[in-house]
Amino acid sequence: MIGDSTITVARQYLRDNVPPIAAGAIIHDNGCGTGAVTRAVLETYPELLWSSPKATIYATDIDPACIADLEKRVTSRGWNSMVKTKVMPAEDLSLPPSTVTHSFANSLIFGARDPPKVAAETLRSLAPGGVAVMTTWATLPHAKALDRTRARLYGEDHPHIKPEWYEASHVEKLLKDAGFAKITASKVESGMEHESMDAWTQLAWSWMGQPQGGWTEQNERDWDAHRSLYADECLKEGFQVGEDGHVRVHMVANVVVAWKGE
Questions:
Q1: Chain centre to alpha carbon of residue 97
Q2: Helices 168-178 and 115-125: crossing angle, nearest 10°?
Q3: Is 84 helix (H, G, I), strand (E, B) or coil?
Q4: How far out from the chain centre does Cα 134 lie?
Q5: Which residues have C-beta within 8 Å of that of residue 171, sequence separation ≥ 6?
Q6: 52-56, 80-84, 208-212: which has the minimum mean pLDDT?
Q7: Are 73 and 82 in contact (CB under 8 A)?
Q8: Do 122 and 103 touch, CB atoms closer than 8 A?
Q9: pTM above 0.90?
Q10: Could you read off the pLDDT of 61-115 as tens digits, one per residue?
Q11: Domain boundaries in the chain?
Q12: What is the CATH number of domain 5-140+160-192+251-259?
């Protein structure tokens, strides 16, 4: 739904924030979704596909639909020998302890059921000296617009993402409490684009606009009015409509990198 924003973040931190990935690496794309990190790794290090010793990517997610989608991509691109997919909750990894060299959790931690458990499982799975990357959003305009729209329409007072998750320091503390030895944080710019505001609100509102209890016939009658309200809130949050009609918005991610002790 948010386009290339997550893979853009992954490409940048692979280039600027993470030690080089070499032959024999054991990589975990944790909460992989449709495989943004997996794709970014293989774009950045295509030689891993034929490296010796062999590198492996474990791409895991709790959503079977995401795994099924990624499996199709893996097969179509001939990555089967390297990329291993599996439905797996981030709070209960079936990966062996002390084996993963690089663990990536792109936009996962703030939506997890038990974030401290995710951090603990990440540390457990890492090899000594291994590196973990967790990202959250420092700015996520469409989520702020969604919160205000839902508050007006449904009287909700709970945010789509809790405020503390917009701060890198919250993730840093989580990883420190889990036992990571060294932690750094930085910010990476990203963004998304859709062909029109109408296309964006059709997609976004169908995905995120459902009231508690499910859609009603009245919601269907009010569909266009509610989308228009959401569009207005998006514009207030910095969405820009270009001369070509495309809608664009700037986003910023927190990138927290942590190392397991030797």
A1: 24
A2: 60
A3: strand
A4: 9
A5: 109, 134, 136, 165, 185, 254, 256
A6: 208-212
A7: no
A8: yes
A9: yes
A10: 999 999 999 999 999 999 999 999 999 999 999 999 999 999 999 999 999 999 9
A11: 5-140+160-192+251-259
A12: 3.40.50.150
